Amino acid sequence: MTKRIAEILKRLDEAYGTEYVCYLNHETPWQLLIAVILSAQCTDARVNIVTKDLFQKYPSLEAFANADLKELEQDIHSTGFYHNKAKNIISCARTLVEKYDGEVPRELEELTALAGVGRKTANVIRGNIYHEPSVVVDTHVKRISKKLGFTKEDDPVKIEYDLMKVLPKDHWILYNIQIITLGRSICTARNPKCTECFLSDLCKGSGK
User: Fold this and answer.
1) Residue 198: how many CA atoms within 13 Å on its side-chain side?
2) What angle (nearest 5°) sits at the alpha carbon of residue 195, between those of residues 192 and 200?
3) Is 85 a catalytic residue?
């Protein structure tokens, strides 16, 4: 690891701490899985509003597995892409009940075989539930990692592998949490506040 990367991580730790924070409200692993499926192309804040009632209406995986598709579509309508999300949630819940006795698997291959679960969702589960070192590539991580010069790729899977090479394992999960905070507050997509950023002197994309 280079001195520059070590300094970037040190400053991120100092600014945002080293606590594992999950922005999606959940009480069980399966609730987090459903919340992450709902979060595709949707804000965490909106998902948390929807799941507040959703998890009361469907208090178990079995309830989701037996849900009426049209009714579930209405329940999650405001998260967008609700046709696909509802279909995937029901299918995913059925697989978890029938194949895994209601447990959410921890292996990447098993998770990505579930309906509606890609690498990003699988890594969120692995990181937050099982504390398996995982790199989650969302829009903030993709954009800011390119600015920092950690990757030149556009494909999330290639970015994931690039970050696994440059970041120490103990920061794989943390980096995502910290970069989301940075991306929401300072390094925003439309108007990045480079002059306010504590990484500006180390950022290859500063001022752009």
Assistant:
1) 16
2) 85
3) no
Integer Cα distance of 31 and 176 in angstroms: 20
With b for 16 or more beta-carbon neighbours within 10 A and e for fewer, the 172-204 pattern comes to bbbbbbbbbbbbeebbeeeebebeebebbebbe
The CATH code that applies to domain 3-20+135-202 is: 1.10.1670.10
pTM, two decimals, is 0.88
Please pick, among 10, 68, 75, 120, the residue that the annotation labels catalytic: 120
Q: Which of 44, 87, 138, 147 is catalytic?
A: 138
pLDDT digits (tens, 9 = 90+) for 56-95: 999 999 999 999 999 999 999 999 999 999 999 999 999 9
With residue 52 as reference, give the H or E element that holds it.
helix 44-57
Known catalytic residue at 120: yes
Domain range summary for the chain, segments of one domain joined by +: 3-20+135-202, 29-128
Q: Give the helix ranges, DSSP H, for 58-171.
A: 61-65, 69-75, 82-100, 108-112, 119-128, 139-147, 156-166
The single-letter code of the amino acid at 141 is: V
The residues of the chain scoring below 70 in pLDDT are: 1
Which tokens is 1 given? 């690891």
